[in-house]
Amino acid sequence: MSNRSNFTGKIGFVLAAAGSAVGLGNIWRFPYLAAQYGGGIFLLTYIVLAVTFGFALMTAEISLGRKTGLSAIGAFKTLDKRFSFIGYLASAVPIIILPYYCVIGGWVIKYLTVFIGGGGSAAAADGYFGSFIGGVWEPIGWFALFLGLTAVVVLFGVEKGIEKVSKFMMPVLVVLTLFIAIYTMTIDGAWDGVIYYIKPDFSKFSVKTVLAAMGQLFYSMSLAMGIMITYGSYMKKDVCIETSVRQIEIFDTGIAFFAGLMVIPGVFAFSGGTPESLGAGPGLMFVTLPKVFDHMSGGTVIGLLFFLLVLFAALTSSISLMETVVSIFTDKLKIGRRPACFVVLGISILLGIPSSLGNGIWGGIKLIGMDFLTFFDFISNSVIMPIVALATCIFIGYIIKPKAIIEEAEIGGAFKAKKLFTVVIKYVAPVCIVLILISSVLSGLGIISI
Ligand code: PHE
Description:
By secondary structure, this protein is mainly α. The protein has one domain (10-444): Orthogonal Bundle (Hydantoin permease), CATH 1.10.4160. It has helices at residues 9-21, 24-36, 40-68, 72-79, 84-116, 120-124, 128-133, 137-156, 159-186, 191-198, 207-220, 227-233, 241-271, 275-278, 284-295, 299-332, 337-357, 372-399, 402-411, 418-444. α5 runs antiparallel to α16 (299-332), α8 (137-156) runs antiparallel to α17 (337-357) and α10 runs antiparallel to α13 (241-271). The protein is globular, with a radius of gyration of 21 Å. The chain starts with 8 loop residues before the first helix and ends in a 6-residue tail after the last helix. The mean pLDDT is 90. Phenylalanine (PHE) is lined by residues 20-21, 23-26, 94, 97, 219-220, 222, 225, 227, 317, 320-321.
């Protein structure tokens, strides 16, 4: 497919890929997982995985895309027919993630409107978040609005406009996150939270820590779902893949790190850092940050700005998710872009509504012990994505061989870490993933406890 349009300039690729990578995963998901899985030990595990595993997998995916000029399904198929299943499996991930991503995106819009209306103090009260997500029509309404916004952008093909705005907004988000993080650290009682977050407690390490950190890595860096393959297919040959991957990685991990620093010390300052408060899960950011803003002079304006910027970061990610799903449907179902958009919209509404209601009236319905949102999140991040990553590593390590990727990566510049790349792809990553998958299945079946 030589008629693929290319990203303009070298920085164009990094910005577009970072736009997809930086989103709710960094700001909403990372802090609550870090809080839940022991703080420092989670952070350390995450960083180790990011510079080894994340680096290797992202390099592999981008190179696969650039080499073949195709997106996931086509890329695996052209290289070896027997492995086209990886492409299909990878494509299932964005279909599962998009609906619940939009539910959380809806929560962000809700909080933005609350701060616009000057209701920041009310949002800081205990129980506010719970009663909001426990409702029926309100969370569904905000979900529909976020999904609708995403769909409008994708339908009218105005991503360029959003990208322009977010190029300017992203650096502001970084600065603001940093500012809020520094402020939070100065609140009475917050310092214990900083220590909890930075200092690894090795007694809290378990297979679960690795599984959670690995799932988060895939999610946050948009890996193991074909997205980076598609992005790679648009990348020019003269761009250095290694440098780009490093830049995306630093940017993505940096934002997640500061987001954790913004939220976790706040949990200690306002909720005492008890196991229950640290284990609050998906609601953590929405419960904690309003309290931080309420404590801050000028907090209403800062809060408003914050939720606005997060909304943009979330939109660039949801747009990239929806784009991917739409292009899968146009290719596979041989339908036009418009009908494909409507099909995706329909599926997202169907799957999004249970995810929203699962926090309230459908809270009693459990799928393997989880509410709908947690279930979709688990299936994609902890089951399908590790399988896709494993299959990708085997495919590259033993079928097309690492050399094929290294050669592609070397076209646009040096590939200094090629030894590391080869070792991780051939040995470290497959062994780790197999062990983790086996132990989580065994623990799921109640045979071992991890
Ligand atoms: N990486 C995005 C985030 O951190 C989520 C995402 C996943 C976006 C997959 C696009 C595709 O929020």
